[in-house]
Amino acid sequence: MKGVSLDRFTTIIIFFTVLLYPLAKMTTIDSFTLLSRLLITILITMIFLWLIFFVTFNKRQLLLITPFIIFEVIYILNIGNTFNIDTLFIIIHHLLILMLVIFLINIKWTAGQAKIFSAIYFIVFPFLILYSILNNGLVNSNTIGGYTYLLAFFPLLYLVGYNKNKRYIFVILIMSISVIYLSGTRSIMLAVGFGILTYILWKVITQNRLLFYGYFIVMLMIIFLITVVYPNINKFGKFIELNDLSIKYTGKSLLSGRNQIWELLLDFIAQEPLFGYGSGTIPNNLLQTTLTSHNLYIQIALQVGLIGLLFLLLFLFAIWKTFWEERNNPMIILVSCYFIGIIIYQVFEVTLTQNNFGFMILQWIILGIGLSYCYDKINSRKKGLKSSAKVDSVNT
Question: Which of 81, 313, 360, 371 has the greatest CB tally within 10 Å of its CB?
Fold first, then answer.
């Protein structure tokens, strides 16, 4: 279908709604956070309903979202005895993700809109750098590092796609990496590292489809290895040296408690591998602990089994496949680097589908914008081919 253009008023409304949540987290006012979450939910729902009534979805879009629809259905059917308010929120969050992705891929984004959304980063950044320097615990360091990483996407998108000023790109990168380092958020550092690696290898992995798809599979293998190997990292001969380096440069030990809980949760998953223990299951239901799984893939396998996890991975692969269509577009290269960073980040956090509303929305906005650019170009090419075919038929 043809992309829908947003007028300036609607763009401003979306801008302020998206801006509210990170600002609320920086102010640490719970009522402000709740209000901004409610406004985002209402806005996404209203725009989605508008699209349902006025937009015709094409086959390609339906094929893209089908794995996620099945993923959501599995969650609904697997509620069992685990239904509570948290389970309801998980299912609602999944519906919001679905609506958000459908909305974003049907929008035709402009340079002006990219520039407007860049302002979110510059408005929130003073708070991020202040809290990272003060290090007073008022705002969680993971929150500081996460928002710095995710919000940096917007000015980078404008700069690589429209402005193309390499000096400004360098400044944004230095500013963001500095705050991430000061926050000591190792999971975000790892995400940034894999994003940079993807950028370095881009010309290699885009030589053909096999290499491009294979790169995604390699990332899944790395995710699997980290998830399985990390719980036993203290058994490695060089662990003490590596741990000393981690403490020296990040101020934190390599072992954060995740190693113990992951090992136990993996044992539970092995006992109920197909559909897990129920959609609302958390580690506290199975273990005497207040810790969370801190791993999206373990959390989902625990809740809806390897079957549910498979459909989420199929959805992510469908997104990655779509990026191939515009692999030479600088904006898609940026989104792809973020995509890899995000899925690696989920090895140590649960923010893509549950637990952290602000991170969840921003991550899917990033991926949705990338899909939007791809579909816009795909539709333009199809339109061009149809026009050429009509001209040829007239000439003959």
Answer: 371
